[in-house]
Fold this protein.
Amino acid sequence: MIVTIGNPSVDTVTLDSNTRVHPGGASVYSAISASALTQAAIVGKIGKDYPKDFLDIFKDKGIDLKNLKIIDHVSKNFEIMIDENFEAKYPKYNVDIDKKLTARAISSHLLNQDTSFLITQMTPKKQLAFIKKIRQTSPMSLILVNTHYPYIDRHKGQFNRLIDSADIFVANEIEAQKLTDTNRTDIATHILSKKYPKTIIIVTLGSLGSIVIKGKTIQFAPTIYNTMIKDPTGSGDTFSGAFLASYHKIRDPVRSAIVGNTMASLKSAGRGYDNILNLKFKKVDDLWNFVLAKSHNFGAQKILSEF
């Protein structure tokens, strides 16, 4: 099982003058993505105002909501404007409920070696508290940590300990550069490989793919399915959920990064999570067969393991 930790949100997204309200938040996109490959659960908090039909979407997907608690508070919410360059702007948002989410939210029944955890974007101090609780009870569980560049700007001194404490750390190019005080991604990856030899670090490159850093080995993982971007919201979280679900099964970081890239591309080609909501694969390689069937360019590879 993949457990994503973070509060779901209510997103009001405007794209091409069309506005749509749907579930959002890093924990939601990563859980929906992970559930295509394995069981998933969400640990988080929502307010009494959170729409019931949003919860029904999660239940229909088979996502475990036992640790998604309803409290007397306004739910996390965002207004998101996607411009012509597919950049997201957030004119209004309310994330005050995030203060209510602590490590106590993880139930003991989730803490076992068959569960991997994805800790979404929050302060490093809070992420470290979640890691501490997981390690105390379930030291063999895999832990993936995401971040967001404003946290690096405000709490940079805490990231050495955070990255060392995680099994997998995922950052985009801007975040990798900020962590290493450089404006070049290639230099940033080499610095990260030397500084954090025990942690698998993934640097996402958008539609191009991602970079996998494991010890002194740095490899490029391509996107095997690419199409026109329609809605990039939640793509990074979609990557992380799919990557962890794949790595949980096959323990191959490069192949798992290709899976994450591909799921993120599939997601970006539609509004919200529409393109990935109904996906379900018994094996990781089944995703590749699905992509081959959709693609006009079959390429040279016939199965995912040939990468």
About this structure: The mean pLDDT is 92. The chain has ten helices and 13 strands.
